[in-house]
Amino acid sequence: MLDEIDLKILRMLQKDARVSNSAMARCTGMATSAIFERIKKLKALGVIRGYRIDLEPRMLGMGLLAYVFVKVNIRRGQPDAALLLAEIPEVQEVHHIAGEDCLMVKIRAPDTGTLGDLLTEHIHCLEGVQSTRTTIVLKTVKDTAELPLTYVGEMGKK
Fold this sequence. Notes:
The chain is α+β, with helices and mostly antiparallel strands and 158 residues long.
């Protein structure tokens, strides 16, 4: 079970994954070695999966964001379309979803031409893919990887 100190550490790391153990120690009133041990424990528990850098896609020529909804016909012995989609470099996320479609795929591309090529040359030709619906994002209002940590206390109640 995570305590308030763990949550404080996680909040600081979500804001800045490069925050030093000594800075976290000052904010929590703990020793730097205790912070190190808590982070080690959070990694071992799988709470901390890794550390990433947040890049601006437009500055790197990947300004087009699209969500592609994929309907697949799954047959025994057929490769998993979700795993094949996950291998495409422009694909950032693949989710199995409930509803009319089977998969939701987040794609970053330089432009609509490149997106069209990805759809025709890499996605539509996958075995089992029946159809796709593509939604292009015009403007992003919020884009974060931070999780609200207010529900953590609820974990033990379920």
